[in-house]
Each structure stands twice: as structure tokens, then as C-alpha cells.
UniProtKB/TrEMBL annotation:
This is Cobalt-zinc-cadmium efflux system membrane fusion protein. Keywords: Coiled coil, Transport. One of its GO terms (molecular function) is transmembrane transporter activity. It comes from Leeuwenhoekiella marinoflava. It comes from the Bacteria. GO terms for cellular component: cell envelope; membrane. The keyword Transport applies. Belongs to the membrane fusion protein (MFP) (TC 8.A.1) family.
Length: 368
């Protein structure tokens, strides 16, 4: 028979006994309610009794924050040429590789560069023939050394101009076969911002077309209110929780705290650096950062599941012996993620129930 069924059977007997008592006696208010449930040793063990000790109070401060990409690992792409976007090969949030083609631009600048390259290439052929002829004349004593040097200089100048144009074509990622400039990813990472689409007109060296960031490490920007400034310091470890992953806790540290309060909201901005190799945290995600501070105070420290909240008050179930589970009101000093520090109502050495406390509480409430 399960623990719950055993308690339930005993509870029925208690209810019958209580009913007969209540018919002959007036109900009296009692600050502490004691039941007469006698539990077996096995049942007591299943209640997971906890002997109270006084622990150092660790205060937990909760800071609201937003995930942001690390600006040191971000590249915003600005086009060096103007034109019309003819094709795009990515969407916001895509994971892209370095040199991957993301878009194509049709531009009159490409036509101009190709025409200039064609003209200079033709001029170079003429200059080569001119140099060859001048070299022959120089060897025969007809041309002067100055004329030979001038012919060589003309050829080298044209070769330089051609290489410069070809460098520009490589820089602009020109595809002469397709007649477009290709926009390639400057680094590997995730596209975290995008402002372009097919058919869009863009200018040379204008606003960024897209932004790529490495999300292996992210920043969390948190607000530190004026009343909490003394409790938060740089390099403090923090735990990060988000409703998107309720069962996960991420860990990091406070990397930097601003020295200037933002006047409109009266907060300091703090920055938390967080490892994100599993890519759970995305820019823009709202999170809660938990900062823990040890105090000089000691108090009873108990699991949250051992505390019952009822009628705007907190209670625990104390085990004096196997036949005397007792409901005792307690005052809360502070609350952690999964535990409470008790200001009053429990003393060191007291034994309380940490499993099925609510069931025992309800049974003693019926007697009351």
C-alpha cells in the first residue's frame, strides 16, 4: 500500500474522531495544531525528515537581462559598389560559412571596369610591340636609351593598371560570366541582421546590408537598480534562467559594470559573458540573472517543498515523534530558487517533513 493511501486511511479515522469530539465540545483556536497520526518507521522515512541546522544566509538578487551578440565577434557588411540586388541566397538566422555567396548585385560599375580592362589590355599589346621594336632600334643604335626606358615604362604602367582592375574585380567578387558582383560572407557565423531583398537598389558604402555574428559566446545586458549596486560586483558568478528553457540553468560571470547611471531609468548596465556553444541563447531573448551574496547572518535553511503557503501565511510540519506531526507557522527571512531561510518558527535541532508535507498539513487542518 502506498504512503498516500496509508495516510488517507488514517485521515478518515481522524475525521470520524474529530466529528464526535466536535458535537460535545466547542472548537477552540490553537496557534499550533497537533494530530494523533501514528506513522510507521517506513512511513516516517518516506517523509524524508530533515534536522534543522543554521546555515549562512545567501541572498539571491534577481536581475532582468536580454541576450545580445558579442560585438567583438560581429561583422556588418557594407557594399563597396552600388547597384540592384538581383538574388539573395540567405535568410535571417541562417548559419553561413566564410566566402559563401549570399547575394548578387547587378551594377554599371562592373560594365565600366570590364570596358576599361578591355581597353587597357589592348593598349598593353600595342605597348609590348612598341617595346620590342624600340629594343631592336636600340640594339642597332637607332633608338636612344631614353626611348627604350620610356617604352618599358609604358608597358609596366599598363600592366600595373590591368592588375589593379583585376584586384578590384576580385575584391568586389565579380562574376564576369554572370555579369554580377557576388556578395560573399566575410566570416562564418549566424546572420543576426538583414536589410536587403531581391530588386532592392543599394548605394556604394551605404548602410550595412547584413550582420554576421559568432554566437558561441554571447553577452547578457542586465539592469542593476540603484538599491542593488552594493550587492553586485565584477567577476561575480551568476546563474541564468529563461522561460524558453525552464529546466536549464546557464552559468557565467559579470564581466563589466557601467560607472554611470542611466538617468531615465536610474539603473546601471551590467554585462555578463556566457558560453553558448550549444546555441540555446539567441539575441533578443529575455532572461533572469541570479546573483548570490553571502551575508554574515545565519538562519534555518529548508527546502521550498517543506514549506506550505496557506491563507497568507507559511507553515511547516514538524515531527516531534512518530505520533505527533505538528503544523507550525514560520516567518520567512529570504527565499532562494528552491529553498527558504527562516526568520522565526524553527530552531536548530527541530525535525521537519520535506516530502508529502502538504498532505500532513491538510490532515491536521481537518482536525482543527
Amino acid at each position: 500500500m502506498s504512503m498516500k493511501n496509508l495516510i488517507t486511511i488514517k485521515l478518515i479515522g481522524i475525521c470520524l474522531l474529530s466529528a464526535s469530539i466536535l458535537t460535545s465540545c466547542k472548537e477552540k483556536e490553537k496557534p499550533v495544531v497537533e494530530s494523533k497520526i501514528c506513522l510507521s518507521e517506513k512511513e516516517v522515512k518516506e517523509l524524508r525528515p530533515l534536522s534543522i541546522t543554521n546555515d549562512t544566509v545567501v541572498n539571491t538578487l534577481r536581475l532582468n537581462g536580454v541576450v545580445a551578440y558579442n560585438p567583438n565577434a560581429v561583422v556588418s557588411y557594407v557594399s563597396l559598389v552600388g547597384g540592384v540586388i538581383t538574388n539573395t541566397y540567405f535568410t535571417l538566422g541562417d548559419n553561413v560559412s566564410k566566402n559563401q555567396v549570399l547575394a548578387e548585385i547587378q551594377s554599371t560599375e562592373l560594365n565600366g571596369i570590364e570596358a576599361e580592362l578591355k581597353q587597357i589590355t589592348a593598349n598593353l599589346e600595342v605597348a609590348k610591340r612598341q617595346l620590342q621594336a624600340t629594343q631592336g632600334f636600340y640594339d642597332d643604335g637607332i633608338a636612344s636609351e631614353k626611348e627604350l626606358i620610356a617604352a618599358k615604362s609604358e608597358k609596366e604602367s599598363l600592366e600595373y593598371d590591368i592588375e589593379k582592375l583585376r584586384t578590384n574585380l576580385r575584391l568586389y567578387s565579380a562574376s564576369q560570366e554572370k555579369g554580377v558582383f557576388q556578395i560573399k560572407a566575410p566570416r562564418s557565423g549566424f546572420v543576426v541582421d538583414n536589410t536587403i531583398s531581391a530588386g532592392m537598389q543599394i548605394g556604394a558604402e551605404g548602410d550595412p546590408l547584413f550582420t554576421i555574428s559568432d554566437l558561441d559566446e554571447v553577452w547578457i545586458n542586465v539592469n542593476i537598480y540603484a538599491s542593488d549596486i552594493a550587492a553586485v560586483r565584477e567577476n561575480m558568478p551568476v546563474s541564468i534562467k529563461t522561460s524558453s528553457y525552464p529546466d536549464k540553468v546557464f552559468t557565467g560571470k559579470i564581466d563589466r559594470i557601467s560607472n554611470v547611471l542611466e538617468p531615465e531609468v536610474n539603473v546601471l548596465k551590467g554585462r555578463i559573458v556566457l558560453d553558448n556553444k550549444d546555441l540555446f541563447l539567441k539575441p533578443g531573448l529575455h532572461v533572469e540573472a541570479l546573483v548570490k551574496n553571502k551575508s554574515n547572518q545565519k538562519a534555518p535553511h529548508i527546502p521550498a517543498k517543506a514549506v506550505i503557503f496557506n491563507n497568507d501565511a507559511y507553515f511547516t510540519v514538524q515531527l516531534t515523534d512518530r505520533c505527533s506531526p505538528t503544523v507550525k507557522p514560520v516567518q520567512i527571512l529570504s527565499q532562494d530558487e528552491d529553498s527558504f531561510y527562516i526568520a522565526a518558527g524553527l530552531d536548530e535541532g527541530d525535525v521537519i517533513v520535506t516530502e508529502n508535507a502538504l498532505m500532513l498539513f491538510e490532515s491536521t487542518s481537518i482536525i482543527n
